[in-house]
Predict the structure of LuxR family transcriptional activator of conjugal transfer of Ti plasmids.
Amino acid sequence: MPIIQRLGWQIKDRFTGQEHRIGEAFVDGEFRSLVDMLEVAQDEAMIKGALRQFTHSCGYERFAYLEKEGAQIRTFSSYPKPWEGLYLSADYSSIDPVVTEAKRKRDVFFWTAEDWPGRGSSPLRKFRDEAIDHGIRCGMTIPVEGGYGVSMLLTFASSKGDGGVPAAFDSRRAVQLVMMVHYRLKMIAAKVAINPKQVLSPREMLCLTWAMKGKNTLETAAVTGINSRTVQHYLDKARAKLGAESVPQLVGIAKDRGLLSSN
DNA sequence: TCACTCGAGGTGACACGGTA
DNA sequence: TACCGTGTCACCTCGAGTGA
């Protein structure tokens, strides 16, 4: 039985009775920033960095994206490598209660390992103990059904099992987020490798994208929530990497190289 | 395990050119 | 002449990677 019950737009801790409002608890700006950073991500490291930052800002410790197509599993996570390896080699997705629940619910849900069978020596008990050992005790999972029978799960997990539900967000945004991660990973997998010295960091891409949209440093600073001097710093670094002498030239070069989409 | 290196992220101070 | 936008330089912190 889950500890957390959904009550319309609220969730309620069954033990403490404390209610948490879905959506309101979530920092709006963080979500927008994540979407922006995913939009400009050029490689898996940038996606991972953006998700990691978002995960922490929501009060969780780790994230895991899992894609299941028939028997084929693909993972993309900040979970400990040993756990990721064990999960795949032991085919834990077939018994993982989160995966099972995701198939049934098709909606954002909260879970805790404390609710999984804690007695006996069943494979599920072993799975539970190992998950907890690796710092995966409770979390929130967003299940989304993709095309051609592909199932996607995005989980935000925490090692803290002593109550206190971290921030959550509404279903619409949750699905949007999973789809963005899914398609961004697909696009990057299909991309041709480019000179690593010319790869811009997530922040550099963020500032460059706003510059392309006509924002000056102050306006970019306002929308990104960082200091204008910092915006300038990232644009400087981007100029140095792409060999541009000014921001307009930088935008032009970035567009020519397909680093920026014009939407 | 620990020290070291490196890159990313963030900021301050200052200079310079254009403009009202 | 003051203000604003932009560019340059320098510094700090933090986390990840690496080698002893």
Summary: The longest strand of chain A covers residues 150-158. The CA atoms of residues 137 and 160 of chain A lie 6 Å apart. DSSP finds ten helices and eight strands in chain A. Confidence is low (pLDDT under 50) at residues 1-26, 190-197 of chain A.
